[in-house]
Amino acid sequence: xxxxxxxxxxxxxxxxxxxxxxxxxxxxxxxxxxxxxxxxxxxxxxxxxxxxxxxxxxxxxxxxxxxxxxxxxxxxxxxxxxxxxxxxxxxxxxxxxxxxxxxxxxxxxxxxxxxxxxxxxxxxxxxxxxxxxxxxxxxxx
Length: 141
Prior knowledge:
Jelly Rolls; four-stranded antiparallel β-sheet; elongated
């Protein structure tokens, strides 16, 4: 079992106690594995349930075409209505605009994404009445 042992006790080498313990441990593992009597019926049912769920998810992953909408308001108050899947606001004018109560300075952009497949966003108000304020708004519905 080992290499380079010198004999010190009859036919037993120096690491005989270690080798014996390893062999006994392996035998114990084999005995324990033989003693396990697993009822695979419950496991098979669980696997079938998981497979059915995965097949359902697989059939519902077809893509949905979303419609992009574009607005370019200036000098007005407005609201992007609830129910969009995403919306982006870019301040392209020379003055500050307001989006959702927050000042959007010229050159700044903010984006909102509803996240999961069928989540939607709530309404967001905007204000471009300040001098030089102008937005480009893109939504997906």
